[in-house]
Amino acid sequence: ILDTNKIPTQNKGETEKVKQYQYEVIVVGAGHAGCEAALAAARIGAKTLLITSNIDNVALMPCNPSIGGPGKGHVAREIDALGGEMAKNTDKATIHIRMLNTSKGPAMWALRAQIDKRLYTQEMIHILQIQKNLDLKQEMVTKLIVNNCRIEGVIVKSGLEFSSPTVILTNGTFLNGKIYIGKTTYSAGRAGELASISLAENLKELGFKVGRLNTCTPPRIDRRTVDFSKMKEQKSSDIPLSFSFENKGKIYKDFSVFMTRTDQKTHQIIQDNIHKV
Length: 277
Fold this sequence. Notes:
One of its GO terms (molecular function) is flavin adenine dinucleotide binding. Its cofactor is FAD. The chain is built from 6 helices and 15 strands. The relative contact order is 0.16. It is an alpha/beta fold. The protein starts with 19 loop residues before the first strand and ends with a helix. It has a single domain, classed as FAD/NAD(P)-binding domain (3-Layer(bba) Sandwich). It is globular, with a radius of gyration of 22 Å. Helix 3 crosses helix 4. Strands 1-10-9-8 form a 4-stranded mixed beta sheet. Strands 7-3-2-11 form a 4-stranded parallel beta sheet, covered by helices on one side. Strands 4-6-5 form a 3-stranded antiparallel beta sheet.
């Protein structure tokens, strides 16, 4: 929607006017939290814009392609109870599912599903694209528009301004993100994707304290190089299960999980090198 009354003044030499768009809610970042925030806003009737640096990687799981587990499984199902999309989307992309900790009391039980991560992303993109009141755009937000301590919108790398009285930041690892591989460090949101550096600097200018949390990602290995005979096979549940309360449970037989454990030698390697981190 173009508001022709809000076209900003341009520098000399520019031949085209940059248009300013009006939204009720802008969500920056289309990971799990961003998708849920944008869908929630759109579903209650708010004109919503979801901005992501790469539409092809919406709701991507780059670390462990699973949903749930102790604590996290409860959150996913609470989101489902509140009308969210994560659990429904999980059921569309599940390849293996189990209820964990069943040897303990029900309070300790935790549902976990292994996911086809590309299918999960494709299905979430589809949901976002067909959602009424929701626009999905590929851009990099570089600055927040703030006047008199009130948010008024965002500016993206291409120069476009999108105005809104509500801006939700769900940048995740992209906000001034860094990748650590051994002793090598470089700027990135995820491997192969740009970090959101300008927005992080803008937040500092606005008086926000910006920190960083580290997370470790297990290495990806070629299954053809693995001796599965030395591992414990864990098949998917033989009881029909689903993540969403709205879906009927299914039994998945095509894929198994193979379990292995660390030992004292593994721990010693960590202890000998942890000071290098």
